[in-house]
Design brief:
Elements: H1 4-18, H2 24-32, E1 38-45, E2 48-57, E3 61-69, H3 78-92, E4 97-99, E5 119-123, E6 128-132
Parallel strand pairs: 3-4
Antiparallel strand pairs: 1-2, 2-3, 5-6
Length: 134
């Protein structure tokens, strides 16, 4: 369910991380009218909204769609925490897979994703997915 505090956090995150202005209507349309089964994870510290995770659910896995956090809590590595929590949720839901989403090497906003294994990496030249355990 959409809440104005969700948009406020998204807006802060977009401005802090990407120097991008956000629109409440676009935010609501993008994350609260999904085409597939989805849900939101909410992270609070001492009652204050610290982060939000948007996830899609399929028959076999849970997919991390987007994650936003307050800069005030940046030192707490909430992106990493959300990955671990979403893995646990996938297991509790009886799902076989957790999809972390795209990782772009050299993109500082996605750097934390490079710490997780195993993973599949797309070879852009051949179009093949390569499995890596380390």
């Amino acid at each position: 369910m959409y809440k104005p505090e969700y948009f406020a956090l998204y807006q802060e995150h977009s401005q802090e991380r990407f120097q991008k202005d956000s629109d409440a209507t676009d935010f609501e349309a993008s994350f609260f009218y999904p085409a597939v089964p989805s849900f939101l994870t909410e992270y609070r510290l001492d009652g204050e909204l610290a982060a939000l995770g948007f996830c899609d659910e399929s028959a076999v896995g849970l997919s991390s769609v987007y994650f936003v956090f307050s800069q005030k809590f940046a030192s707490r590595s909430l992106g990493i925490y959300s990955v671990l929590r979403e893995c646990q949720l996938a297991r509790e839901m009886g799902l076989k897979w957790y999809f972390l989403g795209f990782y772009v090497r050299g993109n500082s906003a996605m750097a934390y994703k490079g710490r997780f294994f195993p993973r599949q990496i797309l070879d852009w030249q051949s179009g093949e997915w390569n499995y890596r355990e380390d």
